Amino acid sequence: MSVPDRIAELRRRIADADRAYYLLDAPTVPDAEYDRWMRELQGLEAAHPALVTPESPTQRVSGRPSAAFAEVRHALPMLSLQNAFTEAEVADFVRRIVEATGEARPAFSVEPKIDGLAVSLRYEDGLLVQGATRGDGARGEDVTANLRTLRSIPLALRMPAGEPPPAVLEVRGEVFMPKAAFERFNAEVIAAGGKPLANPRNGAAGSLRQLDPGITAKRPLAFFAYGIGEVRGFALPATHSALLRALGALGLPLSPEIDVAQGLDGVLAYHGRIAALRDVLPYDIDGVVYKLDRLDLQEKLGFVARAPRWAIAHKFPAQEELTILEGIDVQVGRTGAITPVARLRPVRVGGVTVTNATLHNADQIARLDVRIGDTVVVRRAGDVIPEVARIVPERRPSGPDGQPLQPPFVLPSACPECGSAIERPEGEAVARCSGGLVCPAQRKQALLHFASRRAMDIEGLGERLIEDLVDFGPVRSVADLYTLTLDDLLAMKRRAEARDGVTPETVKQGKIATRWAENLLGGIDQSRNTTLERLLFALGIRDVGEATAKQLARWFGSLDALMAADVEALLAVPDVGPVVSARIAGFFAQPHHRALVERLRSHGVHWPEGPPQRTAEGPLAGRTVVLTGGLSAMGRDEAGAHLEALGAKVAGSVSKKTSLVVAGEAAGSKLAKARELGIEVWEEATLLDFLRRHGRLAGP
DNA sequence: GCTCCTCGAGTTCT
DNA sequence: CTCGAGGAGC
Question: What are the sequence ranges of the domains in chain A?
Fold first, then answer.
């Protein structure tokens, strides 16, 4: 056998073995044999460098660490999917498809929704030339070198003999870390004294973003294909399921659970079947995906705001786990609100480790009847925030008499931070510390709020620094921030470090260590230049949030006009009723609040003032707009500011009164609601076009 | 007085 | 995101 033939044979055997091992999970050759082939191939290639090709299995690790990842523009955007959490939502989805297509019982290509990260593989003339992350859907990162190290990703498409490869074939799919491989990998890392990966999903994402492909190569990653992007010179079959089979024939790995289901009952049965398999599947999933099978019908249905109308992700209900409630702490908020927080024995729920969960208030504790030591069900609801769903009464620790060891939990009657009485007004759910700004916790929260991005936006002033400023520095009220000197800050730092028993870095390192203090002073200085609405919000008047502050600023135009307004004048402001109006008037009636405002002014805090603006003007006057999802060209705030400048009222939630919804990337429940109510929806491009036409944006 | 809309406030983890 | 409660309209 000639050397080129032998090389070709070895490459084919290795590729087949890779496929069997990673895709079919059924090794066909012993590891030793595989290693022998690989070594032989490496030897032959070393002796005949001219025969080395990029798609040879020896070339998976290119070895050259890239400095950073280049940006890749996807030829066709990588789409997001609508989500459904209930059978009713799926029924709606199927009904819409039935109505739009006239098919009584449409066929769906169905697959598990793998919890990994989406990538796009670009094959040109049959060879893998580029691999990219999803990014924002339009642009991702070039991670070709890293993806090449995945043994389940073919470097070259396996074409049937005599058939030419497609000129371009972009394959979309999911990179993930199989559960068993994740456990094995972490066990090894821990044994070696390293830091384990948090969960398979993050492990996969982190591995792909390694600058050194050599590291990625050591991570047990796998890939499943689920769709395509740009295609040239490749005859598309009639259905999505046939397309997937075709990808499989080209050597691309597919989830073995892929199937075809007919109609609503079919997809729901599939959902049930996969949910039952969830724990035994070798990879993490968070739901299943239904795609209308016929490609011609897919095209007919089209897209809404970057999500196809012909596909939906049917998510599994929030995951629940059992753990032990080790204690209940109480936190004091900016308004004095007392919030009980459950301290939990750390538990992994839906991919993240949960140690805290809010218990909201005393009513919630009573409703749940949680006691320290109880076994509780922790759930990650609404995708993110963990909550204690219920307790497991059978597991409550009890004494020999059968009585619970722990009494029911009662909120303390004195504030843990300042000792002031905790009061709960009749009929209200929240209890509050009565200490006001005497309470250090409230003072710190007030400062944090004042400095926050949406208020005065003081860069460099975070939670940690505020702790020290209040405990060891001269800061008692927000106005004190504007008289701070470098010496104050360094003295404060020394005291804080002395308490912590740290060698004073300020002394040790001299000038370098003053950098943070200079940055903070710079941040404070910049915040002097602000707007009336930011200042009003920053003052932290109860029930005056961003929206109300904006209304007040517009209505009165100047701070003096607002401060001079009585309860009656305030009632005339939109969205201000008796409660809020009394709070505002009450706030400014207090001499120390008036003095605070004067101090801020005299220390250079300033903002533009103007005449009252009590009516909206512009092309969007009278329209209420809601922004949802992520925009790529600008932030949501920025878009909102543009819309307001054109006369729109920008609201936070969708209702009958909403006249327009702008849906960006990964828009969720608000978009769904807008559709349900039949409200006009714009995608980002429409918005940008509109802004351009009204002179809010330059260029095309 | 009832009901629907909004807004405010608080929260978790990476 | 969710809950509670204020505002506004009927």
Answer: 3-59, 73-315, 320-423, 436-526, 532-602, 624-693
